[in-house]
Fold this protein.
Amino acid sequence: MRQVSIIGVGCTPFGKLKGRSIKDLALEACREALSDAGVAPSQIEAFYLGNFAGGMLARQELTAALVAGALGIGAVPATRVEGACASGGIALRHGYLMIAAGCCDVVLVAGVEKMTQAGTEEVTAALTAAADRQAEGSTGLSFPGFFAAVARRYMHEYGATLDHLSAVAYKSRENAQRNPRAHFYGKPAALDAISHSRLIADPLRLYDCSPISDGASALVLVASERAKEFGGQPVDILGSAQATGSTTIQEMDDLCSLQAVVKAASQAYEQAGVGPEDVDVAEVHDCFSIAELIALEDLGIMPRGEAGPRAAAGETRVGGRVAVNPSGGLLSKGHPIGATGVAQVFEVVRQLRGEADNQVPHARIGLTHNVGGCGGVATVHILGAR
Amino acid sequence: MRQVSIIGVGCTPFGKLKGRSIKDLALEACREALSDAGVAPSQIEAFYLGNFAGGMLARQELTAALVAGALGIGAVPATRVEGACASGGIALRHGYLMIAAGCCDVVLVAGVEKMTQAGTEEVTAALTAAADRQAEGSTGLSFPGFFAAVARRYMHEYGATLDHLSAVAYKSRENAQRNPRAHFYGKPAALDAISHSRLIADPLRLYDCSPISDGASALVLVASERAKEFGGQPVDILGSAQATGSTTIQEMDDLCSLQAVVKAASQAYEQAGVGPEDVDVAEVHDCFSIAELIALEDLGIMPRGEAGPRAAAGETRVGGRVAVNPSGGLLSKGHPIGATGVAQVFEVVRQLRGEADNQVPHARIGLTHNVGGCGGVATVHILGAR
């Protein structure tokens, strides 16, 4: 397998972006990434687009061809992939594989979602399409409900407290104040307001849940041996993995761990030749505050059961032992489903280039962690500065 | 790139399959393919699933992980791809690439769609998600309308007649009478009934349009060098191509040709080292009767403008110069969107093994042609008997 580098990144602001379609958003992110990379559309050899709910929320499918056509990248293959909230990570994984395996030298990867035109009820219903409707749909369980159950179990198992959850949400909101692209940029929240916000699904409160956002992000990947031909500053993909896990709660042996994440992380670390202790900055899938704690443990970044107190002690802040979600994460940067896995990489690439808005000092190794459904799919990518 | 073979195939009946979910259908096809191949679920290294409207029509996404979990293929990557009606062809293309590029040795590919629980109006609306809603959605054009415009232009350009269209529909319906899996198996139609059926979008009549069907199909792909380890009779993938084309009518220079098909066909022929004259049997994307005529010309199997009279003269029947859609095609076998591109290969593999229900004598080279949207995506695969 050949070495692959990311030489260009782009990301729209996340939030309520009225009057802009899926195509508009994806185009904006793709053009920024191409410009950042110094790559012309005609140099792209394949395009992968992560999108989840285009059909359900915007009645738009075939989005990869749509965006490819508007970008002017010609007749090269344009493929949409979907794995619920991990759609973006899967798109990256496929762009990576195409180059690593020698099928292409230059690939464009993007993720996009347009959600805010729909109401909260409609979005929540669409998101439950990422659960197994046949097996558990009749329970009426939504994703806030699922992660509330996870939180309760985690608190029971490990003695975590509501303050630990609030610490995650607060850190996320603080980080977003230094990220102009974040949904909640310019909207700080006090810890007290967070921990007393209204209940969504007990014990999760409003600030424990990621918002409904529009947005898109894009990356230009090249074979590392050709990186110097282009203008962008390369960041190397050291490890890339995708794994499949439980799609129903009844299949989960342990509510406090997602097996697909454990598997993907182990593969990605092995390929990269690094361990969790080497990670300087991580963008993890904090769709809910509890999800960040479990992610850090499944990734081996925190010992099992200790993520809560360590988060509360500031270990995951920028400047702490390992910076987690310096972008604001899904909780405060926003979570336009298909864009998330790509936007995580946008952030980590800029961290490793030393040009992030909320820069982690001396960041050399970064990790992204993207999860779909209740752990049905997970991707983990490990990136390295040059 | 390594040689890839198909060693197992499976396909549900197509039609109104009440009480069976997307997962049920995909599982049935996958299990048949695994059994046919003599491959255990634990031997699968990656899974690709083509599906179009799971979210819109059945509120079920994350389908690849769902099916993978139920099949018991473990934590290996499971990826859903979507390219409208070419979703199945794209799934095959990715299974092929994973093996050809050396990432995997054994890959399961499937396509599935569950449509008949929705009404015709709802399905037609969902299908328009494969058009560019922003650019042309406001015109109210549906796919029957688009292909009606294509038919009118084709008749104007080349002097084709309504009888030519009816000949395609009649041949398709006749072929389906020998395919027990076809939606219209056991439902023959007289040529006169076809050409006098009710108008759907002038000049297209009821029998010129593919029905709304449920169904799934699956394939087991292996590195050819390992094919003899398993039980199935191998058929080789000689050529595989995916191309991107126009997603709006306004971009099309010529309504009578889909550039993505021309491009993909040219690449697939070149890779396979064969030409259109070598094709013994073809399963082409006849979503409407007119689409079969244009497909045959874009594929180089018929000279431009001559497909109509040649179809009427019987050249495309089983036993004719080149057998086209011996399965009954989309028109009469049915068109469960995501399944179609895989089911075409199911048919051609069985033809090349000499075990098809409607066997083409001495078939050695087969072709499948799968199109999404108004030509936004096309895949072409060329298969060879051993």
